[in-house]
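Reviewers of the previous submission asked for a worked example of the structure-prediction workflow described in the proposal, so we include one complete record here. The input consisted solely of the amino acid sequence. No template or homolog information was supplied to the procedure at any stage.
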Amino acid sequence: MLPARLLKDARYFQIIFQSIFLTYGIFVLHWKSETWLYATYFATSLIVQFACEWIGGNKNIPLLERYRKGIPSVLISSFGLSLLLKTHEPVAAILAATVSILSKYILRINGKHIFNPSALGIVAAVLLTGNAWISPGQWGSDAVIVFTVLSLGFTVTTKVQKIDVSLAFLGSFGGLLFTRQIIYLGWPMDHFIQSVSTGSLLLFAFFMITDPKTTPNHRVARILWSIGIGCAAFYLATFRFINGAPIYVLVAAQPLIPLLDKLFKARNFEWTPSTKMTIQEERFLQTIYSKSVM
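From that input alone, the workflow returned the following structure tokens.
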């Protein structure tokens, strides 16, 4: 049976789904990355998290207890790196994981960390080392992975009430892409569908940009912010040919969030138990969990 606590925290849903994606990539798509790369991401992240809690954590809470509470976020960041960032250099992998975790403790305003941890780690590794890269082509556009990312991603984002972010980003990015490719250039529809159905784009839209701790608190601000990211990412990807443009734009746009939170007043997001699931939702997740551990 699926542990009861997994049904009460949206982060556990994301961890299960990300583990399915990584398993799919390794065993079905036959990714060539060595096992050491994934192990480095996870080991480094867990060690840095422990050090941060030991040095700067809340001393009123036992060390192991506050460390345990932070593990879900660490795993999500590690999976994000594993799914999107490739490198042949251990130093680049260690740098990415270290920056990801440290950013949650150092770069904070009004109780929120500014940057999405895995996005910042990816950008830092690519720009600072020159030996790491974002690999969107590794997913291809297979119908199975597209369906899986869309359906499971939708479940996760609705659990944390940030589906508006996904739809605003995909609507603006996809809408501009459709206008240029289909209406302006007259390309066939197959080309557009392939452009917007890559696994990396959908993972970004449903699992990275939707991080509730690094998005504006107010719905209007979230939607405007997401549309802006979609438009900027379209320009950089289409006219500047920048690989992984949405991730770069996300990192560049996140320092604007404190200003948006100040202009659009709303309560900070907190990780709280999700609302009670329907019988159909619980059966679906039990099925996914059972398949993932077989």
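The longest helix spans residues 35-56. We consider this example representative of the routine output the project will generate in years two and three.
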